[in-house]
């Protein structure tokens, strides 16, 4: 386990680093993204620029004011984008590429399943479009996505890679989630092979005491058992057993900069244990699958079954077929 004291001690060194940090956040106005964004603003007090992708940038002025309060020198730029539309993601990524020469880190969520666009396609496109800027960075560039690392399913349905069947059937919710996590890890491993200098992190955050449950389903007044559970049962459980928002944010910053992932980055005061990447013998920085305590989680048995030429080729081919219009 990476203790919270180690996380804090490592993050405390960021304020003394003069190397510029340029980051991009998808969904940085609520939940884990917001907690990490605020922690980053507090810790990286110099040479920090952050692009934040949100549907309605104007409505997030209070968050912008809070960011400027904790970090007067930072640049925080909201870019309007509906992450459910791949064409919007392309548009805002092009804006970033016009303005920036390099990118240090990114953190993420058209006839396609809305669920699957939000869970996988948008993240894959976001990462693919910004790869040139990540490769240009000299500061241990990283891509972080928050899902359920370690839950990959060896029985991935290769005839339903767009997950339309699984996503449309509430009885298959867990299968759908496992499919998304499997696709994410396999596609990250594919990208890591061609981009050995970039760290890819897939993390399972556990229960987090953020504002995400408080705001869930507020936009709709319709009633359902699932909605009732999320509004009235889940929040008390998270409050009793979840990780505090402050810790969530600190751990989010830690995995963006800690040297335990890939060997580059900020060392803790006593050094950081090097975590295993997802694939044994991988040459390069690679993919790191992390538990909520930021230790690596292994799922080698499931992944090894999928790494044969057939499944990986199908995943890459399907992903590139969907994304090619926007690349």
Key phrases:
327 residues; Rossmann fold; alpha/beta; two-stranded parallel ribbon; 12 helices; 13% strand; 7-stranded parallel beta sheet
Describe the protein's architecture and organization:
By secondary structure, the chain is an alpha/beta fold. Helices cover 46% and strands 13% of the residues. It is built from 12 helices and 9 strands. The protein has helices at 4-11, 31-43, 61-70, 86-99, 114-136, 164-168, 173-194, 212-215, 225-241, 245-257, 300-306, 309-323; strands at residues 21-26, 48-54, 75-80, 105-107, 142-146, 199-203, 208-209, 243-244, 286-290. It has a 7-stranded parallel beta sheet with strand order 3-2-1-4-5-6-9, with helices on both faces. A two-stranded parallel ribbon has the order 7-8. Helix 5 (114-136) links the parallel strand 4 and strand 5.
CATH homology group: NAD(P)-binding Rossmann-like Domain
Main beta sheet strand tally, sense and closure: 7 strands, parallel
Structural class: alpha/beta
Low-confidence stretches: none
Coarse shape: globular
Mean pLDDT: 85
Q: Assign the CATH class.
A: Alpha Beta
Helical content, roughly?
Answer: 40-55%
Overview in brief:
This is NAD(P)-binding protein. This protein is of the alpha/beta class.
Describe the secondary structure blueprint for this structure.
Layout: H1 4-11, E1 21-26, H2 31-43, E2 48-54, H3 61-70, E3 75-80, H4 86-99, E4 105-107, H5 114-136, E5 142-146, H6 164-168, H7 173-194, E6 199-203, E7 208-209, H8 212-215, H9 225-241, E8 243-244, H10 245-257, E9 286-290, H11 300-306, H12 309-323
Parallel strand pairs: 1-2, 1-4, 2-3, 4-5, 5-6, 6-9, 7-8
Helix pairs in contact: 1-10, 2-3, 2-10, 4-5, 5-7, 7-12
């Amino acid at each position: 386990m990476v203790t919270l004291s180690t996380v804090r001690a490592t993050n405390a060194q960021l304020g003394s680093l003069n190397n510029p940090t340029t980051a991009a956040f998808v969904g940085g106005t609520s939940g884990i993204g917001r907690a990490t964004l605020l922690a980053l603003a507090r810790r990286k007090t110099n040479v920090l620029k952050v692009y934040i992708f949100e549907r309605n940038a104007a409505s997030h002025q209070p968050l912008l004011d809070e960011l400027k309060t904790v970090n007067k020198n930072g640049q925080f730029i909201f870019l309007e984008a509906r992450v459910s539309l791949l064409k919007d993601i392309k548009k805002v990524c092009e804006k970033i590429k016009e303005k920036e020469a390099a990118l240090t880190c990114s953190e993420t969520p058209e006839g396609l399943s809305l669920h699957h666009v939000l869970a996988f396609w948008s993240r894959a496109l976001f990462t693919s479009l910004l790869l040139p800027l990540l490769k240009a960075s000299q500061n241990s560039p990283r891509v972080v996505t928050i899902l359920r690392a370690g839950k990959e399913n060896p029985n991935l349905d290769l005839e339903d890679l767009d997950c339309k069947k699984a996503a449309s059937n509430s009885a298959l919710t867990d299968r759908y989630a496992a499919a998304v996590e499997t696709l994410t890890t396999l596609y990250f491993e594919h990208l890591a092979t061609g981009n050995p200098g970039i760290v890819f992190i897939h993390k399972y955050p556990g229960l987090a005491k953020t504002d995400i449950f408080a705001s869930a389903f507020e936009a709709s007044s319709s009633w359902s058992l699932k909605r009732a559970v999320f509004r009235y049962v889940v929040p008390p459980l998270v409050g009793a057993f979840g990780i505090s928002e402050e810790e969530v944010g600190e751990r989010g910053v830690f995995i963006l900069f800690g040297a335990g992932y890939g060997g580059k980055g900020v060392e803790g005061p006593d050094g950081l244990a090097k975590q295993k990447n997802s694939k044994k013998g991988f040459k390069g920085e690679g993919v790191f699958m992390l538990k909520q305590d930021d230790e690596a989680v292994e799922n080698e048995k499931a992944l090894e079954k999928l790494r044969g030429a057939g499944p990986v080729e199908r995943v890459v081919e399907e992903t590139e077929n969907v994304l090619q219009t926007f690349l």
